[in-house]
Amino acid sequence: MDVASVGTLVALVYARVDLFNAAAAIGCVVTFFILMTVAASLTRRTSLNIQGMQHAQLPPGSMGLLWLGETLQFLSSLRQGGPTKFMRERTLKFRSPIFKTSLFLHPAVVVQGADANRFLVNGENRQELRNSWPSFTLELLGWNAPPAVHGAQHKRQRQILSGCLGPGALQRVVGRAGTMTQKHVEAWWKDGERISVVKSVRNYAFHVAFSLLLGIEEEPALSEMERQFRSLAEGLAGLPINLPGSRFRKAIRARDQLRRQIDSAIRQRQNSAAAVDGEVSEELLSQLILARDENGCALSLEELRDVTLTLIVAGYDTAATTLTFALKFIEENPSCRYRLVQEHEGIASQKSAGERMSWADITNMRYTWAVLQETMRLRAPALGGVKETLKDIQYNGYTIPRGWKIFYTMAATHQNDEYFKNPSKFDPSRFEIGKLQKERLQPLSYVPFGIGPHACKGIDFARMSTSLYIHHLIMAKHKWTSLEPNEKISCLPMLTLAKGYPILVSS
Ligand code: HEM
Predict the structure, then answer these.
(1) Which phi-psi region, left, alpha or beta, contains residue 444 (left: φ > 0; alpha: ψ -120 to 50)?
(2) Which UniProt keywords apply (predicted)?
(3) CA dist 214 to 181, 218, 457, 472, Å?
(4) CA Rg, the chain, in Å?
(5) Which of 57, 153, 185, 286 could cross-link 149 (Cys pair, CB 3.0–4.6 Å)?
């Protein structure tokens, strides 16, 4: 692709994003090229590492076109449903599951499979690698958020999060979460109506996370916050071009507004938390404020703010994506729906009228969890992760130079028949306990929640909110039929169904 077409593409992307102003679009392209040229010189400096390494053997692969590398091919694969196409083409071309490339201005190595995941976990534990989210993402989340911090600070944050997001803490909020879920289903799902599943689950995932964390349930405050969150989420997945009208600029504004809201909630809770210290508070934010690590240290104000924002961002689209595809699989597999009905009617029959949900109910929804796990195997909401080498390291006979990125994807293990028989088949029984014990899931072959020291801290929360949604849908006896049966999967900015999964609800 020549430089002119790249420029046109950038202008088109930018114009599609938000600008209809030709002058601004041209300005954007010029700025983009200036930035790229500066970045290219920095990137070249990193790649000098290669030249000094006379005897080192880099993995096979192509570094693509100038500073652009293979970014456009990668983005095109994402647009077609995920990174799999990009990975498969290169794996076949270079006859190697590990290959070098250049993405988003960085020389990178792509690895795949459970062994590669183990190599990444060990490397991170030995501090030869570290988690490496793009800096514009961290700019939006905050530099004190868990993905941005390392070492002792990160360990402290994770200890505190374990206490606040584990089953013990969730037991205190699950009853309220159940009531909220029931209300959501009653409001959104009505017999004979057409709704968008994507809109429903996004609204649900946001409301449940925001209410349980911050205790804010009132309208219109909640809907306004959801609007801000969508802007932030779009900025996280777009081009980091900070110009008036751009997605990124809107995301920064949304971040600032959300921060103000979170700061004010923290101040209110700090006052009331001091009053109830010693008692057990229901809100997760109050628990975060009161929590201490093993040395008795609390989170600072900046940490509280960035951690809270991260929790909502991390749990929002991921849970919505999981529910979207779970509902799609349930619709397409009547036998799966039948087993869900049995499970949820069984759980409901054990409860007295008006009794709230408990954490034990969630863990008893075993088949539901198997359905959700199988959904995340086939449609992992997070596509992959990025690490950065802190020194030259060896893998599979190759050298990966210091400062390079290493990229892994979930799909590369989840859809590999070495780990999952008949991998493209939706089969929740893979995750039912008896079967799992028999077949022995290979360690690090199932990684929807990431790997290593930065793996997800919200697994129990995600399990709670997604299981409750399915519970109330099934108990309301709803059935649904897609109005777009051949709807495509889209991947930018988040994995979802391209037309929002429109359905007709029936009972
Ligand atoms: C189905 C739902 C979810 C999926 C698939 C998911 C997946 C992931 C993945 C893959 C990562 C690791 C990213 C990396 O490699 O750096 C991650 C990190 C994280 N997730 Fe989740 N997540 C989900 C829900 C949640 C929820 C509900 C919360 C909180 C309430 C949450 C909180 C976090 C946090 C705090 C991190 C950062 C951990 C760290 O950097 O130490 N996640 N998640």
Answers:
(1) left
(2) Coiled coil, Heme, Iron, Membrane, Metal-binding, Monooxygenase, Oxidoreductase, Transmembrane, Transmembrane helix
(3) 17, 11, 18, 23
(4) 23
(5) 153
Residue ranges of domains in the chain? 3-111, 155-380+420-506
Find tokens 């925001």 and name the residue: 210
List Cα–Cα distances, 357 to 163, 338, 368, in angstroms: 21, 22, 15
**Amino acid 18: pLDDT:** 36
pLDDT for position 438: 58
Return the SS3 of 166: coil
- Architecture label for domain 155-380+420-506: Orthogonal Bundle (1.10)
Is 456 one of the annotated binding-site residues? yes
Q: What is the pTM of this model?
A: 0.89
Distance 312 CA to ligand 1 centre (A): 10
Q: Tell me, what amino acid is at 17?
A: V
Query: Contact 289/273 with Cβ under 8 angstroms?
Result: yes
Cα 150 to middle of ligand 1, angstroms:
16
Q: Name the 3-class secondary structure at 382.
A: coil
- Residue 384 Cβ inside 6 Å of ligand 1? The answer reads no
Residues 6+ apart with CB under 8 A from 4: none
- Please, what are the averages of pLDDT over each run of 10 residues along the chain (507 residues)? 36 36 41 46 45 70 90 89 92 96 93 96 96 91 96 95 93 95 96 97 94 84 88 84 91 95 89 57 83 90 96 92 98 98 97 94 97 97 94 96 96 93 95 71 94 96 98 97 95 87 95
The structure tokens 């799992």 sit at 436
Q: How is residue 271 written in tokens?
A: 């006052």
CA distances from 277 to 195, 215, 274, 292, 299 (A): 44, 18, 5, 12, 16
Does residue 482 sit in helix, strand or coil? strand
Distances (CA, A) of 296 to 254, 354, 366: 34, 40, 37
How far is Cα 204 from Cα 211, in angstroms, rounded to an integer? 10
What ipTM score was computed for the predicted complex, to two decimals?
0.99
